[in-house]
């Protein structure tokens, strides 16, 4: 007796129709309707789609939906289940090449079709990766470990700690570089978390993802993987970095410092940008070109400090005009121990918030100020508002990005309850999250339409 | 295999095509007339060679939904092209650049497509599933075309039979290729993303002429909606051709239906001759099992060639290799198409797959033209231990491409023992065709996970149906009954005034021939006398015909009324002259008769038409010619001359 899983995704009228004719998913069938016959393969249906249609893959490869109510009979000719599997090839071993570990957390870097949602789900192994991106073997001996299979948005502190610990183990084992496959949406949060939880790493730790899933011919996944593996294998930069497309063209990637990077476009390939500073280097298939010199160098030792702690009762509040103080109050009442505010301008909120901020301080809740302009420093002395707020215990977090401040505050509160100690941790730069100075080319958003900008775009493939 | 030697185009009879088992079907791509593109809100139909930026991409093959790699995809990957897209801000947004997910489908385009599907007597699907059809040649930056089948299983009448319409899909148009050389391919992106439909007929056509005729029927059918684009590139046909014992081969992107007969003839000839080549190979004992080819590096052997291509190769320090095809002697000179030989099949593959785009890219020992000296050939022959029965092919390329080139030479030569490879071939201007890529199969389809399935509601279908033109072949049958002149029938049947014609004839009882002439011929006549006829629209023609039907407008004044209306931009009854009174008419006749009297040498039998001419010139629009003739007691014959 077939059960519902044999009718993957179908429900209601469509399910009843299939059941009536015993037509399981993957049946090769002939369907008769009043208007004529259709031949094809019954496919699973996305759970989010309606209950009135049956999906048929017709012999030319296209899919069509047939209304269940029109179906008069289904003649089953056979069965042909799809096995969506990237051809696996054993990753070749070359004793002359460095040993690199790829830790998987999910995301579109390696993915395949999921009929449940009709979207793509992650899939990955060294063999699969070698099968689809054989170039990886030019750089290293690759080992992989799938830590999680999560979409970016489902990643959180639990995973950050897990990845940090896994990195510690790999460094102990003596790998020469680590690549972390990650969904792109909150890759910069994870990059910040790892920058704090993994200190003084002796080898490159490279985070990578893709903006176009690897089931597309034009995917950036393969090239991103190649760039990240090259960086992990060959670069002398021993920091936590994000390695993603520089331009949208298939040309080179940028290596961003884990605490200064941010996803800046919902869909562009070149979505990651270093904010308030310049990236560490560019990397292409051929070479790694540092564009600054102050990065931490690769070492032979294994002296890494893994500090995987995190207080989850921390929040980030994006200030908007007419924000009511009860927003802060409710966080305090719900036991939050830290709040990062993304304030306007140099770091401001409106006056009605003051009593709530005062109350937060009294309840020993750490409140830090960042700027929603993303670029620039918090400067709370310039206006009275700022001074007032500092009186109320709001601490300016210099030019830490709001998300980075959030991650760091969670990490700091994970270590201590003492407000002074938290403050010391927060304001002492560990991995470039606060910089002493902003170089003049740290803020570059060229305005399209200007003749000189257009000239530039015309000249360089972006 | 039947004994038959292909005759030149024009000498082949229907029976000859039957002998070779000619079979052909069409895949017609037709752009739809919408303001915007299919999956984004960029304007459609604006072409420009100017560009503001360039983007570079590579394509990698991916698995199909059923977990298989497509053969074409792998072939395209072998070519390793650097693909450059030229971007013009006015016509392209981040969607076409594949940096933004698709927006929901353009509903106007879908309406037009569904309507055309109904005209083709197709069954519409209940739910539209958008698929990704892989194209690794780079013609679409995503590496796939978003496409969906929306109608299946239709037909059109042809001769005394029905030609099957297998399926219709709505899809986004691809880029325009600018250049393709070595490992570079350049595309313009303005056309990219424009909505088009693809109509696939059954392989039901039996002669090259039939293919073109069916093509015309399809063209007329879609034009009758007046919702499709016209002009160069707006409609492109892919033609599938096979002969008995052959394979389906697709000739891609034929811009004009008129080219189809010669192209399909040549392709049938190519296939027939390739099958004969296989017979010849078999006769020589060469089969897929016994086929033997070897290759040798002869870079150091060819020292100072005079033959320019090789001289350049030596100077550029390219690698030179020689492939020996055992027992192939003279077969590279085996004719495939008009003035085209088997060597071209090999050269094409090397050009496309190994990216050796500078022609000649191979030379061979069957060639009668001067290449390397005969002593050099001897040297090579000795080195590769070839016999007199063998054919030698020499190819030159850099380290990266040489192996691909050698492999392709061997692959294509071996395919000759198997038959006709399934290929997509490009139409050439001389009516022959060249290799473009391996024919893709069902394995290149993948569901588009970015867009949900779309239900086609019944009320939507009903609404579209109510606005559809009548199928033009039905109109034609009626026009024939009405005795409309044959030169007008075709045009009227797809004219935007066809529905107005129906009304004029059925409701207002206007003489059908008169109505047809007014609606089809008059606008053309105006256009010839350099009137700008763009302002002529259905509303204007309707009011003119109605005024005529109501007796407000005389027949002789219609053309004049159209001229004035064209200038005014609309028809108003004020432009109709006052009818002449009986009294004034008498005066005018008297005046005309006086003028007649002054004229000399009038033959009596012409007098009637001359006086009619004088009167009509003056009174056109105020009274009909028929009434004047009656008044003058003239026979109808003179009336005709007076016009």
Characterize the structure shown.
- The complex is a heterodimer of chains A (462) and B (643).
- Chain A has 462 residues and is an alpha/beta fold.
- Chain A is built from 11 helices and 23 strands.
- In chain A, the strands form 6 sheets. Chain A has an 8-stranded mixed sheet with strand order 9-6-10-12-13-14-17-18, sandwiched between helices.
- In chain A, strand 15 (261-263) and strand 16 (272-274) form a beta hairpin.
- In chain A, helix 4 (187-197) crosses helix 9, helix 6 packs parallel to helix 7 and helix 9 (402-413) crosses helix 10.
- In chain B, a hairpin with a 2-residue loop joins strand 9 and strand 10.
- Chain B has 20 helices and 23 strands.
- The longest helix of chain B is centred in the middle third of the chain and has 24 residues, at 260-283.
- The model of chain B is unreliable at 637-643 (pLDDT under 50).
- Helices cover 38% and strands 20% of the residues of chain B.
- The radius of gyration of chain B is 33 Å and the shape is elongated.
- Chain B folds into 4 domains: 34-161 and 170-195, no CATH class; 286-418, Gyrase A, domain 2 (2-Layer Sandwich), CATH 3.30.1360; 469-575; 582-642, no CATH class.
- At the A-B interface, strand 3, strand 4 and helix 11 of A face strand 2, strand 5, strand 6, strand 7 and strand 22 of B.
- Strand 4 (63-67) of chain A pairs antiparallel with strand 5 (127-128) of chain B.
How much helicity do the residues of chain A have? 10-25%
Q: How many domains in all of chain A?
A: 3
Determine the structural class of chain B based on helices, strands and strand pairing.
Answer: alpha+beta
Fill in the CATH topology of the largest domain in chain A. Answer: Rossmann fold
Poorly predicted residue ranges of chain B: 637-643
């Amino acid at each position: 007796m077939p059960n519902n899983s044999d009718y993957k995704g179908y429900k209601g009228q469509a399910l009843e129709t299939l059941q009536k004719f015993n037509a399981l998913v993957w049946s090769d069938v002939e369907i008769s309707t009043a208007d004529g016959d259709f031949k094809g393969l019954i496919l699973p249906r996305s759970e989010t789609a309606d209950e009135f249609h049956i999906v048929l893959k017709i012999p030319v490869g296209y899919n069509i939906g047939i209304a269940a109510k029109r179906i008069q009979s289904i003649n089953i000719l056979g069965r042909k289940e799809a096995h969506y599997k990237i051809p696996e090839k054993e990753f070749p071993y070359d004793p002359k090449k460095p040993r690199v570990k790829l830790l998987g957390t999910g995301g579109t870097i390696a993915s395949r079709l999921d009929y449940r949602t009709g979207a793509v789900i992650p899939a990955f192994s060294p063999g699969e990766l070698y099968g689809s991106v054989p170039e990886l073997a030019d750089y290293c001996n690759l080992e992989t470990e799938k830590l999680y299979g999560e979409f970016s948005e489902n990643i959180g502190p639990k995973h950050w700690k897990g990845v940090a610990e896994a990195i510690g183990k790999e460094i102990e084992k003596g790998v020469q570089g680590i690549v972390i496959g990650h969904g792109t949406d909150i890759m910069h949060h994870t990059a910040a978390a790892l920058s704090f939880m993994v200190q003084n790493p002796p080898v490159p730790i490279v985070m990578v993802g893709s903006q176009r899933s690897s089931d597309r011919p034009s995917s950036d996944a393969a090239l991103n993987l190649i760039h990240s593996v090259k960086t992990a294998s060959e670069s002398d930069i021993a920091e936590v970095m994000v390695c993603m497309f520089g331009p949208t063209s298939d040309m080179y990637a940028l290596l961003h410092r884990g605490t200064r990077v941010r996803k800046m476009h919902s869909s562009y390939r070149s979505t990651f940008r270093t904010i308030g500073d310049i990236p560490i280097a560019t990397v292409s298939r051929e070479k790694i070109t540092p564009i600054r010199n102050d990065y931490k160098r690769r070492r032979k030792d294994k002296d890494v400090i893994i500090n995987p702690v995190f207080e989850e009762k921390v929040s980030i509040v994006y200030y908007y005009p007419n924000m009511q103080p009860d927003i802060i109050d409710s966080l305090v009442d719900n036991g939050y121990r830290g709040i990062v505010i993304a304030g306007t301008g140099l770091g401001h909120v409106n006056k009605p918030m003051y009593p709530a901020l005062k109350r937060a301080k009294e309840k020993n809740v750490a409140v830090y100020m960042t700027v929603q302009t993303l670029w620039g420093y918090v400067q709370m002395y310039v206006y009275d508002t700022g001074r007032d707020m500092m009186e109320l215990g709001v601490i300016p977090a210099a030019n830490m990005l709001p998300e980075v401040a959030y991650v760091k505050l969670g990490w700091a509160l994970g270590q201590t309850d003492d407000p002074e100690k938290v403050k010391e941790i927060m304001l002492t730069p560990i991995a470039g999250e606060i910089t002493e100075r902003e170089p003049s080319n740290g803020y570059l958003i060229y305005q399209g339409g200007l003749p000189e900008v257009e000239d530039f775009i015309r000249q360089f493939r972006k | 295999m039947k004994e038959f030697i292909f005759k030149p185009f024009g000498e082949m009879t229907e029976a000859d095509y039957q002998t070779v088992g000619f079979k052909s079907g069409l895949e017609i791509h037709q752009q739809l007339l919408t303001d915007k593109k299919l999956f984004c809100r960029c304007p459609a139909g604006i072409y420009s060679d100017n560009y503001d930026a360039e983007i570079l991409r590579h394509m990698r093959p991916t698995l199909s939904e059923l977990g298989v790699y497509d053969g074409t995809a792998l072939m395209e990957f072998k070519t390793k092209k650097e693909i450059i897209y030229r971007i013009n801000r006015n016509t392209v947004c981040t969607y076409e650049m594949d940096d933004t997910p698709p927006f929901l489908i353009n509903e106007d385009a879908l309406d037009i497509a569904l309507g055309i599907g109904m005209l083709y007597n197709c069954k519409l699907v209940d739910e539209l599933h958008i698929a990704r059809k892989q194209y690794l040649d780079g013609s679409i930056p995503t590496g796939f075309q978003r496409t969906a089948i929306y109608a299946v299983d239709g037909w059109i009448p042809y001769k005394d039979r029905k030609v099957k319409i297998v399926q219709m899909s709505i899809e986004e148009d691809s880029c325009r290729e600018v250049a393709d050389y070595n490992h570079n391919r350049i595309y313009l992106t303005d056309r990219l993303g424009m909505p088009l439909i693809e109509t696939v007929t059954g392989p039901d056509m039996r002669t090259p002429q039939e293919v073109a005729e069916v093509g015309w029927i399809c063209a007329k059918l879609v034009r009758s909606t007046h919702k499709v684009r016209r002009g160069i590139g707006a409609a492109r046909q892919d033609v599938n051709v096979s002969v008995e014992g052959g394979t389906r081969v697709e000739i891609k992107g034929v811009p004009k239906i008129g080219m189809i007969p010669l192209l399909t003839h040549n392709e049938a000839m190519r296939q027939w001759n390739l099958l004969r080549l296989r017979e010849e190979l078999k006769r020589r004992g060469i089969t897929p099992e016994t086929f033997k080819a070897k290759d040798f590096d002869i870079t150091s052997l060819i020292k100072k060639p005079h033959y320019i291509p090789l001289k350049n190769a030596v100077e550029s320090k390219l690698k030179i290799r020689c492939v020996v095809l055992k027992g192939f002697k003279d077969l590279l000179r085996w004719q495939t198409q008009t003035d085209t030989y088997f060597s071209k099949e090999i050269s094409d593959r090397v050009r496309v797959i190994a990216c050796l785009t500078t022609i000649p890219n191979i030379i061979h020992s069957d060639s009668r033209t001067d290449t390397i000296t005969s002593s050099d050939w001897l040297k090579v022959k000795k080195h590769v231990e070839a016999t007199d029965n063998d054919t030698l092919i020499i190819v030159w390329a850099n380290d990266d491409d040489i192996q691909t080139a050698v492999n392709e030479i061997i692959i294509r030569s071996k395919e000759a023992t198997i038959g006709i490879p399934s290929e997509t071939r490009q139409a050439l201007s001389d009516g022959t065709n060249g290799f473009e890529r391996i024919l893709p199969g069902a394995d290149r389809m993948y569901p588009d996970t970015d867009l949900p399935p779309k239900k086609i509601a019944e009320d939507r279908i009903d609404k579209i149906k109510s606005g559809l033109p009548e199928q033009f072949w039905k109109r034609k049958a009626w026009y024939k009954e009405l005795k409309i002149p044959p030169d007008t029938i075709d045009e009227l049947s797809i004219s935007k005034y066809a529905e107005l014609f129906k009304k004029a004839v059925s409701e207002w009882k206007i003489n059908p021939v008169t109505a047809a002439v007014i609606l089809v011929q008059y606008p053309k006549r105006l256009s010839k006398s350099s009137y700008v006829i763009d302002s002529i629209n259905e509303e204007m023609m309707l009011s003119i015909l109605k005024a005529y039907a109501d007796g407000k407008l005389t027949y002789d004044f219609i053309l004049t009324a159209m001229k004035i209306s064209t200038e005014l931009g609309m028809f108003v009854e004020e432009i109709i002259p006052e009818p002449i009174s009986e009294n004034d008419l008498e005066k005018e006749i008297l005046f005309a008769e006086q003028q007649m009297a002054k004229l000399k040498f009038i033959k009596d039998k012409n007098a009637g038409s001359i006086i009619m001419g004088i009167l009509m010139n003056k009174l056109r629009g105020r009274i009909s010619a028929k009434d004047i003739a009656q008044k003058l007691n003239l026979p109808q014959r003179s009336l005709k001359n007076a016009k």
